[in-house]
Automatic annotation (TrEMBL), chains A, B, C, D:
Site residues (May be catalytically important), renumbered to this chain: C147
Superkingdom, natural source: Bacteria
Gene3D superfamilies: Urate Oxidase
Catalysed reactions listed for this entry: GTP + H2O = 7,8-dihydroneopterin 3'-triphosphate + formate + H(+)
Alphabetic keyword roster: Hydrolase
Gene that encodes the chain: folE2
PANTHER family: GTP CYCLOHYDROLASE MPTA (PTHR36445)
GO MF terms held by the record: GTP cyclohydrolase I activity
Protein name (database record): GTP cyclohydrolase FolE2
InterPro entries from the UniProt entry: GTP_cyclohydrolase_FolE2, GTP_cyclohydrolase_FolE2/MptA
GO biological process: tetrahydrofolate biosynthetic process
EC number per UniProt: 3.5.4.16
Similarity-based family: Belongs to the GTP cyclohydrolase IV family.
Role noted for this protein: Converts GTP to 7,8-dihydroneopterin triphosphate.
Length: 259, 259, 259, 259
């Protein structure tokens, strides 16, 4: 009979907040508004707490548990995964975050050409004791931004660039990744497509030029919508512009909690 | 009628070797030895040549073409994608590379626990004129390596670490990703698993200790198998050890061409 | 006279928590315990708050201000940089973080061979209103860890690997990067060197084997020292092992506040 | 007396092309046209060949040798490092590549504001037998590019973005990093600065708009200058635009040899 070192007592009297596995790549099926579900590949972190009197956790159980998940990964299913983690590891608290590229078919604005856009998403769940699990959705949305200052002071043209808007949100009722994507894309100078024919390119160029935005404008316009949405209980939003005139980014960040 | 700038003549008299799109994320289905096919997510680069008298290529066609691919991506299907690229862009040469994590179910050596291992793979196709397309398969295999020097000079123990073996190969007949993975895993001190129970952990620890390998040994043992395989017409193999006693890697590389 | 768009009023009534520049690369001189100072290269983020009635901040002032810093960057000098940021931008709060590789000469344990070890460090300062600035030091220390379970259950050998221990700390009085490095290196199975001759390699192999540690052990042993140090007012410590038998990491995390 | 495993004979009859260390971080001093030299931080790879009859190389000697380099790292000094590597390791061939951010002070075009721009550079040296060492300089230059198609077809505005131009070159006589930077910056729609005041921003916006360039144009205009420079014996140039209207890049590549 092999000794179980992890199960031995520990005398340092120091509980551990999080212990588990990090950076595991795993294929996942996620809920998809248009198609029911989609296949993608995730990077997963899974942790539980460890009380002061226990020497170690059982790392293999995290991976085994992930293998048994047989429903699409979504904000809905995180709670039961967290409960399974606590039961399997004998823990009081559990944490999981699952990051994956998520694809949405977009139709170009003029020629109706279809293409897939990719958005990096993370769903994060934490469960602590008997309280309801804390669930956060994070969505990164690439956008176009045109600089209002550059447009105003220049006789023609205006510098613009790709930016990334990152929204994290807590909520009462389930929200779709697509909802976050849509509201961010409407707050940018213009949204981004994978396929644009020439008529589309004229459209997005002119739309963006008509709609110049600082990173400050983008985070405020996203924040405005989220503040007005009573389903959102907390959010943070950042905008990062990969400036075309600099080798660094412009950045803005707002965090907001209801009550 | 909109002017087509890309179609205008160019007078600099300089042909371009490769022009196209880089870093496009796209969900793909790839051929899988055990299950027929698997869903994963790829990063794709697609280029064609541009003759000296043409000003620009048509970037949107690359993405549109990728959307029309409706057979599993594999070494087999690259040739027809390359032909489609040349036809669509009016080019003489075409290049595509598709990188993706590929998952293989592995059973642990003692307790038969099942888990998925991920291997980063790239399939690369180049077609130049009327010649047969040049196809290369690249597979990165994480491994365990135990240092033979450390084992020999120490009274007990031996430093070991995760390493990555990267094989690129050209071949006569189709080869499976699984074949490359298998031969590399046999050339390491021990192969790697996502789930190992205690009996498995004892097994892999002792197997690795019994089988110490420098990076030099690993590349030579992989090379030996590939040299003896008459289906392989060219290969390179590198081994990189993320040394546990240093903050840099040990590295070895062999390239070999059959005549 | 050019219009100053950033200076225009804003009517959305939404203050911005952080706005500024991100990802700027800049050569810096940092305080060094052994040599007084050392030259390295930093990545810098600088933000201020923006009140609800202001449309935008002045991005160029951040970079100009960084150029005027003429004392070595250190925990000591952050406060004055933060004050300069608030004054220059007319802001109430300011935040800066500066990340850089930091080099320490280490002598190998047996042959006394000298080599440089690199540690990724970040110094973070935040100033909010009239309160004393909040300063955090983060140091990432690569280490060797030997698995206690693997050692115990195996007839010979034990899997080990490179790991990274990340300490973040708040403190009363100035602390050296070297102090954090030293206490972490003593909590690992063995510390890491850039140059090891054979006699040294025997030493570190045997020392590590005699001193097996889970990630749980490493964070607890680091935490124990930091809890006992009354100069430390808050800390977090994580340990991540790049497992040699898996393609994912083992991870543990403790956060502690001296309330 | 400890056994020297690396020095034992090998019977697999397979020589190794490259063996050594990879990913070592090291502070370096590099030659600087304006100031004589500058301090920066490099990532270094160093390899030698290993004949078929030798089991292993001596990894610690690479790091020791790097520590003895006491002249500024430059294209000039690589040859002597390569000779030292061959002598120290008893090898016939040696390879080193040293990558580092390199800083150049630039003055903004209107307000003469000074700022530092960073350029990622690599110097690569290979020595094989008695032949003259093969030295390559690689410089990555971030630039602004305005899309000629978008400008032409749109009633106003034009999408633009940050791009990166990567030049690799072989040459007869020493060339400065600054020379490559200058010629690339002149081939872009506009060059990039770290500090731009409003008058400067107007200038670069209008200059870029007046000077639209596809990736195809940028690589051709760089190639044109390099082809005409009889000091350059070989070069490759790529341009990658981080498209503001897409989430992927546009890319072009030319390679040219002065036979």
């Amino acid at each position: 009979m092999m000794i179980d070192i992890q199960n031995q007592p520990d005398f340092r009297n120091i509980p551990i907040d999080k212990v588990g596995i990090k950076g595991l790549k795993h294929p996942v099926i996620v809920r998809d508004k248009a198609n029911g579900s989609q296949s993608t590949v995730a990077e997963v972190n899974m942790y539980v707490d460890l009380p002061h009197q226990c020497k170690g956790t059982h790392m293999s159980r995290f991976v085994e548990l992930l293998h048994t998940v047989n429903t699409p990964v979504s904000l809905d299913s995180l709670t039961s995964i967290l409960e399974d983690m606590k039961a399997s590891l004998g823990a009081k608290s559990a944490h999981i975050d699952i990051s994956f590229p998520y694809f949405i078919e977009k139709t170009s604005p003029c020629t109706q050409s279809k293409g897939l856009m990719d958005y990096n998403c993370t769903i994060i769940g934490s469960s602590n004791g008997r309280k309801k699990a804390d669930i956060v959705l994070k969505v990164a949305v690439p956008v176009t931004s045109v600089c209002p200052c550059s447009k105003e002071i220049s006789d023609y043209g205006a510098h613009n660039q790709r930016g990334e808007v990152l929204v994290a949100a807590r909520f009462h009722k389930f929200i779709w990744i697509e909802e976050i994507v849509n509201l961010v894309e409407q707050a940018a100078s213009c949204d981004i497509y994978s396929v644009l024919k020439r008529a589309d390119e004229k459209y997005v160029t002119e739309k963006a030029y008509n709609n110049p935005k600082f990173v400050e404008d983008i985070v405020r316009d996203v924040a405005k919508v989220l503040i007005e949405d009573s389903n959102i209980t907390w959010f943070s939003v950042s905008a990062e512009n990969f400036e075309s005139i600099h080798n660094h980014s412009a950045y803005a960040y707002i965090e907001h909690s209801r009550d």
